[in-house]
Specification:
The protein is α+β, with helices and mostly antiparallel strands. It has two domains: 94 residues, no CATH class; 177 residues, Nucleoside Triphosphate Pyrophosphohydrolase (Alpha-Beta Complex), CATH 3.90.79. The chain contains eight helices and eight strands. Strands 1, 2, 3, 4, 5, 6, 7 and 8 form an eight-stranded mixed sheet that branches. Strand 3 and strand 4 form a beta hairpin. Helix 7 runs antiparallel to helix 8.
């Protein structure tokens, strides 16, 4: 795993921790607890800012100087006011990670640490949504999935997103620094004799595009060809029903559809509102 990818994962982890402390501060009715959370939040934000600045210096994170000045000015204005955390939340999600707000989910039933992990896999998946409010889904061996795949060596997540979408759909999405709006981290303890503990990270991106898929531009692997990998446009408001219809008794569907449903539900229930709050 490259240093850039390690720092990206660490930055995403800090963002999730900040979110927890902000919610705790806003919702706590105990002043002592609120003050403790505020102090901890300041420390975490400083760590986040240091990490962010280091990544900018290494050219791992693009930043607009005008926005940086706005961040500093806004931060100073609201630091000592009671609604500081509300504005920090906006600053954090809009100016730091862009107009995409990310939620982080961790599944770690065996309480593994990163030091326990022998095998790391990071994946990027795209929610390709058009102006007709349709989402483009892959359909393979009886299972729906978002187009996407794993990060190759020395590859940035945005590069993975671009490459995988092109290989699986023939769509050339805009080349830019995309940020995930939803992330799932799964720790797996070895259950066999190989003794390998695994970590799998799934990063979900919203990509608005009206470009149609092009089968002639796809580059499927042997498994996808063998299993007749299909592409289907589904109305967003019908997707959950379609997943239920195709669930059957397929154990793989139960696991894969759990994440898909969580991602789509979050997009419907929270992300659209948050996007309006931060952008407009």
């Amino acid at each position: 795993m490259s240093n850039e990818l390690i720092f990206n994962n660490y930055l995403m982890l800090l963002k999730g921790v900040v979110e927890v402390y902000i919610h705790g501060t806003l919702e706590s009715s105990n002043e002592d607890v609120k003050e403790t959370l505020k102090t901890s939040l300041e420390d975490i934000l400083n760590s986040q800012r240091d990490t962010y600045n280091l990544m900018v210096q290494q050219d791992w994170y693009q930043v607009n100087n005008v926005k940086t000045n706005v961040i500093d000015q806004t931060y100073k204005k609201v630091t000592n006011q009671w609604f500081v955390f509300f504005f920090l939340k906006i600053w954090y999600n809009y100016f730091v990670i862009g107009d995409d707000y990310m939620k982080t989910i961790v599944h770690n039933h065996d309480n593994l640490t990163y030091k326990d992990i022998n095998d790391f896999t990071v994946r990027a998946r795209a929610l390709l949504i058009n102006d007709d409010n349709e989402i483009l889904m892959g359909y393979l061996d009886g299972t729906y999935q978002f187009p996407g795949g794993h990060v190759e060596e020395e590859e940035k997540l945005s590069e993975t997103l671009y490459r995988e979408v092109l290989e699986e759909t023939g769509i050339r999405i805009e080349k830019k620094e995309y940020e995930p709006f939803y992330q799932v981290n799964r720790f797996y303890k070895s259950l066999d004799r190989d003794g390998i503990n695994r970590f799998k990270q799934f990063n979900y991106y919203i990509v608005h595009t009206n470009e149609k898929y092009d089968l002639s531009k796809r580059k499927l692997d042997e498994f996808e060809v063998e299993k007749n990998y299909e592409l289907r446009y589904i109305p967003l408001d019908k997707l959950l029903d379609e997943l239920d219809r195709t669930m059957n008794d397929n154990k793989r569907n139960i696991r894969v559809y759990e994440d898909i449903k969580d991602v789509i539900t979050y997009y419907f229930d929270e992300y659209k509102w948050l996007r309006w709050l931060y952008v407009y």
